[in-house]
Specification:
binds NADP nicotinamide-adenine-dinucleotide phosphate; alpha/beta; eight-stranded mixed beta sheet; Rossmann fold; single chain; 41% helix; 10 helices
Length: 303
């Protein structure tokens, strides 16, 4: 009871009844805790992931709270699946109040997706970019977009020339770049939204290092078991603590008008210099549209 994201984020008094939220990657870990917390605050929640039985279990927990909940399966390595997820959201609501772009992971094997794009970059960045672009007309005018990045975004640059390559692949490096892309994306989105007549906010956050989520399951050798054991130590950051900043950004009145910021522990923090580079933000935005073969979202409000 004490270790609930909404309590840690000090938003237990917020009433989200009547609000609709999509939390991607909510079959497990931080996304699951975020979805359940938003449900406890009153929101109806769409659950997403690939593991159907895990997704349905979260739906059952939300239904037991009296919430309207539904699961949508979509593989983030598939453009068609992401489009189908967006279509399912449009069927579900005309006014999505909260979009948590959380699905993602660290993948040990270097491979290209059907789009010819490095898998981690595609799953962790291109798919949330596409989903957000698809959902822009469906978002409520005061919607909040929350993107799960990581402190691992520090210490790397994007390296646009290697997006279509897995030569000398390092799972951790690829992960770092994708998490940098999350902050760049979130900030560019915030700037473009700011020039519209809508009040939609976009923020990203670092949840902390959380060994107890499903994060380590794709790592090699004994690492998944080691991470799980670390997660049981009393000093480890819990999954609920990891979800607290997402719940804060999605629900707190304190950040109603805050956009284009990066948070840790429910506090704004300065992301890396690479993440703050507006030229790279704009280039990533444009190149992501090119890679997906779509018109640039919010092109009319570009600086
Ligand atoms: N744990 C940490 O220490 C940590 C630190 C910093 C940032 N993060 C970020 O937190 C977010 C959530 O991670 P977590 O720690 O909660 O790990 P997790 O328990 O493994 O959850 C990851 C979620 O993403 C979904 N997902 C993964 N690959 C997918 C794919 N190809 N298509 C569709 N969905 C996919 C998973 O769904 P299915 O399994 O059902 O496909 C799952 O719901 C990630 O963006 C991660 O980068 C985690």
């Amino acid at each position: 009871m004490g270790d609930r994201p909404e309590r840690i984020a000090d938003v237990e008094g917020v009433d989200l009844a009547g609000k609709r939220a999509l939390v991607t990657g909510s079959t497990s870990g931080i996304g699951r805790e975020t979805a359940l917390a938003l449900g406890r605050l009153g929101a109806d929640v769409m659950i997403h992931g690939r593991d159907e039985s895990a997704g349905e279990a979260v739906v059952d927990e939300l239904a037991a709270m009296g919430r309207e909940a539904t699961f949508q399966r979509a593989d983030y390595a598939s453009v068609d699946d992401v489009r189908a997820l967006a279509a399912a959201v449009r069927e579900w609501t005309d006014d999505l109040d909260v979009l948590c772009n959380n699905a993602g992971g660290l993948f040990r094997e270097g491979k290209l997706t059907d789009l010819g794009v490095e898998y981690t970059f595609h799953v962790n960045h291109l798919s949330p970019y596409l989903l957000t672009a698809e959902l822009l007309p469906t978002l409520a005018d005061d919607a909040r977009i929350v993107t799960t990045s990581s402190g691992a975004h520090r210490g790397v640059d994007i390296e646009f020339e290697s997006i279509r390559s897995v030569d000398s692949y390092s799972g951790f490096r690829a992960y770092q770049r994708s998490k940098l892309a999350n902050v760049l994306f979130s900030n560019e989105l915030a700037r473009r939204l700011d020039r519209t007549d809508r009040s939609i906010t976009s923020n990203s956050f670092h949840p902390g290092a959380i060994p107890g989520s499903g994060f380590a399951r794709f790592l090699p050798g004994p690492l998944p078991r080691l991470f799980a054991a670390l997660g049981r130590l009393p000093m480890a950051t819990t999954v609920a603590e990891g979800a607290a900043t997402a719940v804060y950004l999605a629900a707190s009145p304190q950040v109603e008008a805050v956009s284009g910021q990066y948070f840790t522990d429910c506090e704004p923090e300065t992301p890396s210099a690479a993440a703050r580079d507006t030229t790279t933000q704009r280039r990533l935005w444009e190149e992501s549209a090119t890679l997906l073969g779509i018109d640039e979202p919010l092109a009319d409000v570009e600086a």
